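Training component of the fellowship. As part of building independent skills, the fellow (R.M.) carried out the full modelling exercise for a liganded target. The chosen ligand was adenosine monophosphate. The inputs are recorded below so that the supervisory panel can assess the work.
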Amino acid sequence: MKILVIGQGGREHTLVWKLAQSPLVEKIYCTPGNAGISQIAELIPMPDRFTDLADWAESENIALTVVGPEAPLAEGIVDIFHKRGLKAFGPDKRAARLEASKDFAKQLMVKNNIPTAAHRTFVDAEAAMAYIEDHKIPVFVKANGLAAGKGVIPGRTFKQAAQAVTTILVDKAFGEAGNSVVIEEELIGEEASFTVLTDGTHCLPFVSSQDHKMSHDGDTGKNTGGMGAYSPAPVITSELHDYVMQRVVYPTVKGMADIGNPFKGVLYVGLMITDAGPKVLEFNCRFGDPEAQVLLPRLKSDLVPLLMACIDGTLAQHADVEWHDEAAACVVMASGGYPDPYQTGKIITGLEDAATIEGVDVFHAGTKQEGENILTDGGRVLGVTATADGLHDAIQRAYQGVSAIRFADAHFRNDIGYRALGRD
Ligand code: AMP
Ligand code: GLY
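Fellow's submitted model of the complex:
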């Protein structure tokens, strides 16, 4: 079969890499893709309209379209493909609200008694300020809509919290995503990501993972899309796994079905493991990036039938999914300055040397091919990923890969996996 993957980051390179291993797959296309993806898939330009992409998919007999990022899902790309009878993996527009509207997600959690931080939603800045003055600091002030991971502002003082409300609701720093704000109490603990595939009824959990959101070592610096990840995440014990499935995952999937919006695709639950148990920080409606880079290499089973089963409602037939025992670690190499403004167009060397290290795969994020050279073309540039027996070795191999690669002003964290290693 022919497959189309939508997106251009490290997550999509990993998806293409995994899909390409399936005996069912004859050819993969990707739009818009990146330099790494172009080595295993044919890149096509992203048309202005999803209907044009659906026309193209129809004419090329694409059997499965896999949507990587949240924005096209929230804009309804899956609805457009399904109307044509084309199979597309990911939630439809209404179900993608679980990520695209924090207020929607909060209401669903409250209604279904799913553990999460106490919150209130406001459209009016004065009412939001009055609420903050009456409540304990710190709070987290969040733009309701999609803001590319930047719409969450911690308010550690009243002044900061008030400024966050102004930034989002009045200055509209995140555009329409800031038409309302969600203000939440602070949760204290260790974060973990919990990823499941679902067909709207049945759920198939992935192995556990954890990413590192802050830009610098020791979780200092600024919030980013993710500077590295590892799997398994020992913080998710088997008791916590069962608790999250019973108290969070199934009630969320059932809650969506109950309101007539069955959620089909990847449900990514961002958790804070507090002293009072795991609580939901956020839902995402797609694989995490860089979590995908450590989850997909650990999946032994063919990914294609699993994605098809999510679309067809037959996931219950795939309970025998197999995993590799090896652990996986991914170190993101970013452009100097990221997540603030950064330069692009730097020549990357050493990619082939890194790929010869046992267990190492280099997934591209912001890269582009220009003549003979591969150049940096984004904030997060590469996800240097390794598998090995045990996390310690996987992390060591990933850093061996990193040291083989060079580009001007490269920035990466030196402590990926420190929490997991600290438990040894
Ligand atoms: P979100 O996009 O909602 O996951 O928020 C981004 C990051 O902000 C999370 O990964 C957490 O590190 C932090 N965060 C968000 N909400 C809270 C909260 N209620 N308590 C503590 N940290 C939070
Ligand atoms: N790594 C966090 C995310 O993909 O949202």
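The panel noted the following from the submitted structure. The first strand starts at residue 2 and ends at 7. The CA atoms of residues 354 and 404 lie 5 Å apart.
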